[in-house]
Amino acid sequence: MKLFRHAADLIEWRRENRLLSVGFVPTMGALHNGHISLIEKAKSENPLVVCSIFVNPTQFNNADDLKRYPRTPEQDLAMLAAAGCDVVFMPDEAEIYPAAPQMQLNFGNLEEVMEGSHRPGHFNGVGLVVSKLFHMVQPDRAYFGQKDLQQFLIIKRLVADLSFPVQLVCCPVVREADGLAMSSRNVRLSAEARLQAPALYRALTEAQQRITQGENPQMVCSEITRRLNETGIFSVEYLTLADTETLASVQSPQAGMEYALCIAAFLDGVRLIDNVVFRM
Ligand code: PAF
């Protein structure tokens, strides 16, 4: 496995391998089996796989969250080597941002809901870094997790609006045995909070069941939110039924249509997100 820290070396490697298709998995490190499932999917569809590890400062709207974001580079490299990744790109901040970026991306309605409304500037930072990484890696396919559904839709918009010649692949959420969606942030949970955390997935499955049985989505989501908040352990930012393309909130779901139930909540000072996508 090759490790590049400079974009120029990565670009040179890409030039030497221009006839082979590259699958790209962008990450912020602190890798877990969810990331490894993306590497495996990329390997099954491309002769070469590149993974980037870069904790992108421009997508954090909270300095403390950036400081406390887990960093485990040695463990990450061992996991990627074991998974058969071909190239790791691990730049420092100056390599990606030689100067503070001035450009502002606007994703319209897509960024005005859910994560966008709770984390101002977040998707501008994601859009900037993903654009830069796409220019450097020049992937044929790029792999993202469905856990960050809104991020996937934002990147789909970015690719369409800026004509990036890359095919995007959305991969299923990978869960722990008790249902908790795998996330780099899970390691920050205390032992007690970790035991409570699967309640988020249980909330999503309960809501899905009740909505498919005909209950009103808004009433179901507010009742479950109230119940989670009343535990005193969770502080729910949103629980909402959304259209899977626009993420607009859905009040009257139609039979046969696909929807996403999305949740974000603080637990033990750690912000967790999760979703389920289902057909009515
Ligand atoms: O999903 C992530 O880990 C990040 O948002 C990404 C796509 C690597 C951009 O920094």
Largest sheet: 6 strands, parallel
Shape summary: globular
Quaternary state of this entry equals single chain
In percent, how much strand structure appears in the residues?
A: 15-25%
Run of helices and strands: EHEHEHHEHHHEHEHHHEEE
CATH topology of the largest domain: Rossmann fold
Number of helices: 11
CATH class category of the largest domain: Alpha Beta
Instruction: Return the average pLDDT rounded to an integer.
Output: 97
Whole-Å distance between the termini?
45 Å
Helix content: 40-55%
Number of domains: 2
Just name the CATH architecture of the largest domain.
3-Layer(aba) Sandwich
CATH superfamily of the largest domain, by name, is: HUPs
Strand order of the largest sheet: 1-4-3-2-5-6
Instruction: List the bound ligands.
Output: pantoate
SSE-based structural type: alpha/beta
Poorly predicted runs of 5 or more residues: none
Outline the structure in words.
By secondary structure, this protein is α/β, with parallel strands linked by helices. It has two domains: 170 residues, HUPs (Rossmann fold); 90 residues, 2-Layer Sandwich (Pantoate--beta-alanine Ligase, Chain: A,domain 2). It is built from eleven helices and nine strands. The strands form two sheets. The chain has a six-stranded parallel beta sheet with strand order 1-4-3-2-5-6, sandwiched between helices. Helix 7 crosses helix 8 and helix 10 packs antiparallel against helix 11. The mean pLDDT is 97.
